[in-house]
Design goal:
Layout lengths: L3 H13 L4 H11 L4 E8 L2 E6 L4 H9 L8 H8 L5 E2 H4 L2 H6 L1 H7 L6 E8 L5 E8 L8 H35 L7 E4 L5 E4 L11 E2 L5 E2 L2 H14 L9 E4 L8 E7 L13 E7 L8 H8 L3 H11 L4 H8 L3 H15 L4 H9 L8
Antiparallel strand pairs: 1-2, 1-5, 3-4, 4-5, 6-7, 6-12, 8-9, 10-11, 11-12
Length: about 350
C-alpha cells in the first residue's frame, strides 16, 4: 500500500493525466481499506464517472438501471456541506438504510453497502464526489480510515480544481480554433450549459443566442427542438433533430444550428463537453441538393429528394409520378422530413429550403 505522501503525488499526477484516475482510485481504495473507489458528478440527468478496476462494471450497471435518479444518497451528502468524508451512517440512520431501496435492491445484492464519500465543488459549478466503497460483510468504514481520507481531501480538491481549469482551457482552445473557419460555435455541457464560445459568436444578431448557464435560442420553436436534441444525445436509440432551423428575423438571414455530439472518455469528468453547436448561415440561391439536405437534417436519400421537390414547389402527386412512387409513400416521407426539420407545415419547409443553401454549395 502507498504511503500518504506517495498517494498525494499520484493524485496530482492524475490531475494532469486523467487516464491515471482508475489506478489512483484503486490506490485510494486500498489506502482507506475499501474494496473500490470512484469519482462521479451528477448534473441533471447527466451522470459521469470513473471507477477503479473491479468496480467499474458494477457502476456501469448502476447507471444503466437509473439508480442515480432513484436515490438521495448523493443529495444528502451535498446537504451536509462537510469539508471531509462522511460515511453512510453519517447521512442515514440505521433504520433509513434498511428501508432505502439503493441499499436493499442494488448495493447489498452486489456485496456492497458501506462507503465513505466527500463532495467537492469545482470551478465549473459541478460537484464532484469522491466515494470509497466497502463490502457489506466487512462492516462500516472505520473512523481511522475516514481520518486518513480526510487528510487527503485538500489534495483531492486541489487536483480536481486543476483538472477543471486545464479542461476549460482546452475547450476554449477548441472553440477558438473554429474561428479560423469563421464559424460561430459553442461548446456545451450535458445540460446545454455553455463551456466555451468562438469569437465568431460575437458577430451574430442580438437575441439569437442567450448566454447563461444554458444556451437559449432566441426563437421559441427552435429552442424546443434544441432541448430535444440535447436530450437525444444521451439516448442513441431515440431519434432527435440534430440540425435546427433558425428562421429569418429582423436583420437576420435564416440559419441552421447543428448539434454535434462529442464522445468523451470515461475519465473526462471535469467540465466534460457533451456537444458542439455550430451555426451555418443560408444564402439566397437554389434549394440545396439532396446530399446537402441529408447532411443538414439527417434525412434519408428518399426523404431528401422529397424535400427538394417540395422546396421547388412540386406537389406530392408530381413527386410520386417522377420517382414512380405511390402518393402515400411520398406523404409518409414528407411527414418524416417535417419531423426531422422540426416544422409542422409544408409551407414552412418551402420557406426554409427555398431561402437558400450553405455558403459555397452550388
Amino acid at each position: 500500500m502507498l504511503t500518504h505522501s506517495e498517494l498525494v503525488d499520484r493524485v496530482y499526477e492524475a490531475a494532469m493525466l486523467p487516464e491515471l484516475w482508475p489506478s489512483v482510485l484503486a490506490d485510494l481504495s486500498r489506502f482507506a481499506d475499501g474494496d473500490g473507489a470512484l469519482l462521479f458528478t451528477i448534473d441533471g440527468g447527466d451522470f459521469r464517472y470513473v471507477a477503479s478496476e473491479g468496480l467499474d462494471a458494477t457502476v456501469a450497471e448502476y447507471v444503466a438501471a437509473g439508480w442515480p435518479a432513484r436515490t438521495d444518497r448523493a443529495a444528502r451528502l451535498f446537504e451536509r456541506q462537510h469539508a471531509g468524508f462522511l460515511t453512510d451512517l453519517d447521512v442515514y440512520t440505521p433504520a433509513e438504510i434498511e428501508d432505502e431501496p439503493v441499499y436493499r435492491d442494488f448495493l447489498r445484492p452486489h456485496g456492497l453497502g458501506w462507503g465513505a464519500a466527500s463532495a467537492i465543488v469545482v470551478p465549473t459549478g459541478d460537484c464532484l464526489i469522491v466515494d470509497v466503497e466497502r463490502r457489506h460483510a466487512r462492516g462500516p468504514v472505520p473512523p481511522e480510515a475516514v481520518a486518513r481520507l480526510d487528510r487527503l481531501r485538500p489534495h483531492l480538491a486541489r487536483a480536481a480544481t486543476l483538472s477543471a481549469r486545464l479542461r476549460l482551457q482546452t475547450l476554449r482552445g477548441a472553440a477558438q480554433a473554429l474561428d479560423t473557419l469563421g464559424l460561430p460555435a459553442v461548446v456545451l455541457g450535458g445540460q446545454g450549459q455553455i463551456l466555451a464560445m468562438s469569437e465568431a459568436c460575437g458577430g451574430l444578431p442580438p437575441g439569437l443566442l442567450t448566454e447563461g448557464r444554458r444556451l437559449v435560442l432566441g426563437d421559441a420553436g427552435a429552442d424546443r427542438l434544441f432541448a430535444l436534441a440535447l436530450d437525444g444525445l444521451g439516448h442513441e436509440d431515440r431519434p432527435s433533430v440534430r440540425s435546427i432551423p433558425l428562421p429569418a428575423g429582423e436583420g437576420r438571414e435564416p440559419m441552421i444550428l447543428h448539434v454535434v455530439p462529442i464522445r468523451r472518455a470515461g475519465a473526462d469528468l471535469f467540465a466534460a463537453a457533451s456537444s458542439l453547436a455550430v451555426i451555418t448561415p443560408l444564402t439566397r440561391k437554389a434549394p440545396p441538393c439532396p446530399s446537402v439536405l441529408e447532411g443538414l437534417f439527417d434525412l434519408t436519400g428518399a426523404e431528401a429528394r422529397v424535400a427538394r421537390g417540395i422546396a421547388a414547389c412540386r406537389t406530392v402527386e408530381q413527386i410520386a409520378g417522377e420517382f414512380g412512387l405511390s402518393r402515400e409513400t411520398v406523404r409518409s416521407q414528407l411527414k418524416a422530413v417535417l419531423a426531422k426539420t422540426g416544422l409542422s407545415r409544408q409551407s414552412e419547409l418551402v420557406g426554409l429550403l427555398a431561402a437558400g443553401t450553405l455558403p459555397g454549395v452550388v
